[in-house]
Every structure is written in structure tokens, then in C-alpha cells.
Amino acid sequence: MESMCGGVPIISWPFFANQQTNCRYQCNEWGVGMEIDTDVRCDAVANLIMELMEGENEKVMKKKAQEWREKAVKATKPGGSSHDNFDALIRDVLAPSRHGHNFDAYLF
């Protein structure tokens, strides 16, 4: 996510947890990255880097990454979806409940 928020294309090497899902979206759905093959070799990684920086898809991936960056910036500004959702989370967790629950006991 940091790469996309920075507007930078990604080289992914998924290993565990949500990395496979993130890689699939970055490479196949969003078009902002390339995946390292499971047989990782120095020359293969170097070729991917060159393709990402100077290859035929380089401009397309950079443009898409920049578009995602702009969406991330917009979402985190006041009035943006991430900003509003975070505010709602804080209100729901920290604000006194209408049902008399005291959530202060759960805060460390």
C-alpha cells in the first residue's frame, strides 16, 4: 500500500498471509505491479526491475500507480472515505454508548 500511495509501481514476491491476495490485485486487477517468479534468481529480479523501469508496460504501470496515489490522497483528506471511516470508528469506540456500556474499561 505504501508503494501505491507513493505512486510507485510494485514488484511483488508473495510468501504468506495476505501477500498472495495483494499481489493478485496489484498485478492483475490494478495493473501497478509485476510478480517475482517462485524460482528467484538475481538475473530474473534484475530483468523485472528493468521491465518495470524501462519496459513496454512501464508508462502504463506508472500512470496507474499515480492514479491510485491520487485516490489515496483524496480518501485520506477531510471528507474522504478513509478519513470519514476513521472518524466513525473513533466515535463508535471512544464515544459514550447510548446503551450505557462503558468502553473505558477496555482501554489500556
Automatic annotation (TrEMBL):
Classification via Pfam families: UDPGT (PF00201)
Keyword Transferase: yes
GO terms for MF: quercetin 3-O-glucosyltransferase activity; quercetin 7-O-glucosyltransferase activity
Keyword line: Transferase
UniProt name for this protein: Glycosyltransferase
Entry's family note: Belongs to the UDP-glycosyltransferase family.
Coiled-coil region: none
Signal peptide: none
Tagged with keyword Nucleotide-binding: no
